[in-house]
Every structure is written in structure tokens, then in C-alpha cells.
């Protein structure tokens, strides 16, 4: 085998260039836009965009339902590269809310100043971690956390936050018309979700990660929720609240696609 010798001066030059390249990569920054499209299964079995106050969605127990309020926190956003090194987004507490029926109103959050490299995993949690979900009011105003209650997410009767809130109505398979209240909180229901997709962030550009949120999966997956039995779930019944939390951890979120925006 023929050996190739690199003169020491050239080697030093190459090493210098490599260090400069590494520094340049670390200094290069980009923006990540997280977009959340809320969809649900309608009575024909098709996934359609969530429209507020329309009685046309179906759960696994064949109960028809509508949604008047749908909001939740994502928090503790992290990105991991192929070596397992992570970028932690500080104070990343974002309230995601379906506030309009217009397609242009799809909720999104933009995170700037992220190192422009290729990441192999995006991770975030649903809810508020125990550090900020506690009686210490000094922890109540970080990121988009708002302890004043103006956004309807803090509990009225206790300190802490609802992690996810869905209000609506249902016509059950037994013919009953009921209200729907699913307010899920409590530290044991704090769940973490990870997408293992390669996403490249390019210097000076914005990459959009399009997350599809399957609202009907809130009521099915690890456990099916029968509205005739449970249509009002808050702190209690605690076992049903945990079932709902396990449902949204296992099947409600999917990374549909990503693209670099010009």
C-alpha cells in the first residue's frame, strides 16, 4: 500500500483550517419554526382540519364531539445531533392554541439563534415541569407561562397549570348530549415526546418543522375514553387523567415533514 506523507507545515495549516471550520460551524446560527396543525377524525373516518364548534368528530367509542377550546403547553425543547450532544432552548415554555378556524392561523413558534447543523432528534414535553408547576409564584412567569390566569391555563383553586385543555360537547353513542371538559395537569402527567428525524438547519435560514396533532388521539391509544362514562376529567378521576396523558404521549403528535424556507 502506498503511503502519502503530508509535510508538517501543510498538516499544521490543515489543522488550523479544521479548527476554524469547527468554530465557524458553532458560530453559524439558524431559526427553527415549529408549526402545529390540529386535525381530527370526522364521522366518515377522514382526518380533517380541526374547526371549532362543529359537531363532526368521532372518538373510538363512536361518540360524536365538537371542540370549543383546545390549547396546551409545550416545554423544555431540546435538539440532539448525531453524536448525542444537545442544544437546550432556554425558558422554552410555549402555549399552543387553536384560536381561529382560518388555515393561516395554524399555531407556530419560532426559535432563533440555534446552531446551524444537522440534528437527529427534536424533543419537547407536554405540560409544565415540576420546577415551574408549583406553589412558588416567582416561577410563574417564564416563557409564555402566565400565572395571572388570563389565558385560562392556571388552576383557579390551586397553584399550578393545566398542561392541556379541551372543552367542547358530545352526542354519545347512547344518544346523550353532554359537555366535554378535559383539563389535564399534575406533575405525574408531564409527558415527553421525541421525533427521530434528521433535520438540517442552514445558516441564516429558517427551517419549518410541521407537526400534525391528531386531536381524536387524545381519547384513544393506550386507553379508549367513553364519553358516556367520562366526559369531565380534571384532577379527578386521576386514573382517567393519566390515561388521557398517556394517550397524548403515545399517539397524538407526529412530525409530518420539514422544509427550509427561502
Taking all Cα atoms into account, the compactness measure Rg is 22 Å
End-to-end C-alpha gap: 48 Å
What assembly state would you assign to the polypeptide chains in this entry? Answer: single chain
- Low-confidence runs of at least 5 consecutive residues: 1-24
Task: Please summarize the sheet with the most strands.
Answer: 10 strands, mixed
* Total beta strands: 15
What's the number of structural domains? Answer: 1
Helix content: 10-25%
Secondary structure class reads mainly beta
Shape: globular
Explain the overall architecture:
With 262 residues, the chain is mostly beta strands. The chain has one domain (29-261). 13% of the residues lie in helices and 41% in strands. The N and C termini lie far apart (48 Å). 30% of the residues are buried.
Give the tags.
disordered N terminus; ten-stranded mixed β-sheet; mainly beta; 15 strands; single chain
Short description:
The protein has 262 residues and is mainly β. Helix content is 13%, strand content 41%.
Amino acid at each position: 500500500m502506498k503511503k502519502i506523507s503530508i509535510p508538517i507545515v501543510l498538516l499544521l495549516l490543515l489543522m488550523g483550517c479544521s479548527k476554524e471550520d469547527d468554530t465557524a460551524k458553532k458560530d453559524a446560527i439558524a431559526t427553527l419554526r415549529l408549526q402545529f396543525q390540529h386535525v381530527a377524525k370526522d364521522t366518515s373516518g377522514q382526518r380533517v382540519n380541526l374547526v371549532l364548534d362543529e359537531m363532526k368528530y368521532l372518538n373510538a367509542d363512536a361518540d360524536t364531539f365538537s371542540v370549543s377550546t383546545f390549547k396546551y403547553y409545550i416545554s423544555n425543547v431540546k435538539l440532539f445531533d448525531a453524536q448525542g450532544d444537545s442544544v437546550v432552548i432556554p425558558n422554552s415554555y410555549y402555549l399552543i392554541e387553536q384560536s381561529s378556524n382560518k388555515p393561516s392561523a395554524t399555531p407556530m413558534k419560532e426559535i432563533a439563534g440555534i446552531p446551524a447543523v444537522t440534528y437527529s432528534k427534536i424533543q419537547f414535553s407536554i405540560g409544565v415541569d415540576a420546577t415551574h408547576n408549583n406553589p412558588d409564584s416567582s416561577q410563574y412567569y417564564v416563557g409564555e407561562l402566565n400565572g395571572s390566569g388570563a389565558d385560562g391555563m392556571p388552576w383557579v383553586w390551586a397553584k399550578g397549570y393545566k398542561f392541556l385543555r379541551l372543552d367542547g360537547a358530545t352526542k354519545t353513542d347512547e344518544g346523550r348530549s353532554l359537555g366535554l371538559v378535559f383539563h389535564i395537569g399534575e406533575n405525574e402527567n408531564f409527558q415527553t415526546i421525541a421525533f427521530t428525524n434528521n433535520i438540517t438547519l442552514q445558516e441564516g435560514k429558517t427551517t419549518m418543522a410541521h407537526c400534525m396533532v391528531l386531536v381524536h388521539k387524545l381519547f384513544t391509544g393506550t386507553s379508549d375514553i367513553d364519553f358516556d362514562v367520562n366526559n369531565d376529567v380534571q384532577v379527578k378521576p386521576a386514573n382517567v387523567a393519566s390515561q388521557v396523558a398517556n394517550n397524548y404521549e403515545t399517539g397524538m403528535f407526529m412530525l409530518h415533514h420539514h422544509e427550509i424556507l427561502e
